[in-house]
Amino acid sequence: MSKEFLGEFEELVLTMVGILQEDAYGNAIVSEIKDRVGRDVNLSAVHVTLYRLEDKGLVKSSMGGATNARGGRRKRIFQITNAGMAMLRAMKEARMDLWKLVPQLKIVLS
Length: 110
Prior knowledge:
Layout: H1 8-20, H2 26-37, H3 43-55, E1 59-66, E2 74-80, H4 82-101
Antiparallel strand pairs: 1-2
Helix pairs in contact: 1-2, 1-3, 2-3
C-alpha cells in the first residue's frame, strides 16, 4: 500500500462501497450516505470521488446490466479492492491510536 492519504469524503465514499458491495453505484452511495450519516451529497461529487479512488487502485468498476427502470441504461458498479480494504483498516487503526490518546474527561452533572 502506498503512503497516499485519503480525504474525509474519499474515506466516506470508499467505506460506502465496502458496505454496499455489489449494489455500490452512484445513486445508491448518495442514498446510503444520506441514510447512515444524514449528509446530503451531490451525485457528481460521488462520481468524481469514485473515479479518483479507481485511479488510486482502491476500487474497481464494471458495467451492470441494463434495466427498464433506467431506460435501458447500465449502471457502473464499484467494488472495493484489497488495497482499498487495507487503506480503510490502516485509517481505522490510526484513528483508534489517536482516540486512545484523548484523556477521559469526567462530566460533572449539576
